[in-house]
Amino acid sequence: MGNNILKYLFIIIVIGLIGFGTYKMLQNDKQENHPVIDQTSTVNTIQTDLRLAICNFDSINPYLSNNRNVQEISRIIYEPLVTLNEAYKLEYCLAEEIAKTDELNYVIKLRKGVLWQDGSEFTANDVKFTMSIIKESGINTVYANNVRAVASLEYIDEYTVKMTLSEPVDFFEYQLTFPILSQKYYEGQDFATTEKNLAPIGTGIFKIESVDSNIIKLGQNEIYWNTEKRPMAKEININLYGSAGELYNAFKNGEIDLVDVKIANVQDYIGSIGYKRIEYKSRDYDFLVLNTASEVLSDGAVRKALSKIIDKNNIVASCLGSGYIASNFSLDMGNWLYTKDLNVQPNPEEATQILANAGWEYKNNKWRKKVEGKTLELTFTIGVNGNHATRLKVAENIKTQLANVGIDVSVRELNHESYSASLENRNFDMILTGITCGYSPSLKTFFGQGNLANYSNQQVSEIMNVIANTSDENALYENYHKLYDIYLEEVPYIGLYRNTDVVIYNQSLVGNIKANAFNLYGNIEKWYRQ
Description:
Mean pLDDT: 91
Radius of gyration: 28 Å
Number of strands: 24
């Protein structure tokens, strides 16, 4: 009897272990194939539709649209050869490998097994077709500059193309972020006028289901090549609005989940409660160029002293307000190679000591220095575009800050033609200007040959050469750090500020919601509503 009890007990234990093992296997399979749900949610609270918006819609075809909202949303429908992550670091997408064979030639291996949303296969013909749209169709596309330097594209085989440039481009791979369209889908059609532009197919994580005058409906792309990205959302409704006012009212009424806004005072339109916001650094960067070839500013001690006097936070608070942030360098918008804080805190006492150590003397309310029998004075002119009211205010602020330590500065308002000529000819002491930063970490504008500041340094030239000819991350980190150290010491430029953009989203939207200037929807597969 006792033996039978032990036997039954043993059988029960074995069955229990098998059952538990099966349960764990099922759980692991579930976790591997489906995004993890936020632990604060329950299955009953999850809503699997997302609601986005486009204001002043023109076309959902990214090559025919000049609408920023369309360009942002198109990233989840169409895909590029390469994409960028949250830190603006390059990641392969439809390209599987890119080999730089020399400074002008790139061989691109394409990803196999990618299907268009109609089930046809993605091949090199699609890349060639897309390139012809940009280069040869005559349409005015926002992607034209991406391939400006591409002289030719050669079809090697079904999954390989070769691009030849007309001139070297630092970090050229970063230009390959334009969306690829299907050659077969458009075959025999006039690209600019065909009705197929109403709902083009892509290879992205979502596909267009329908388009009407009020709404664009997207559904999951069930044949998406990246099985690790299975979105929580089953569908996305993109509401179309005729004005920003309509869009903001819709958001305020809870009809939209997320909006990217360009206005700093968005709370004036929708209030300040009931939503969350993310402020991120934009690509618009303003800075002061110091002409290192001029008689006085050729003195590195003078340039370094100026950097210790100018208070960027004071400029933002006094002249700019919300929607701007102090900025120190073109890459500080979040680039993965900006790994060192270049912030220089204002310290007028240290600045005056730097000048004194370099032989400058403050006497009779003037800084003077004798060089080869000639008396030099710290007197400068800041050139600024007179049509740019904000920069005029900033220039006057800088003038006041420098005057406080005895440096005499005048602000010279230039018309557009004179301003452009001054920049081109390097005809200035200092000039206040700005650029829209590229996505790549290239610093050619600032340190390359013919740079804005007339800056020349043999070590910097060597570093720039290494940077242009390596893809090794450790080498890049090391050389960018060297460059940063020289920049802080030599100061050919003084970074001032950059614009910020804002994403606002409904409190019911759940997920790791982040945003940068390249992509608002980088991890949309993890988003859902509750």
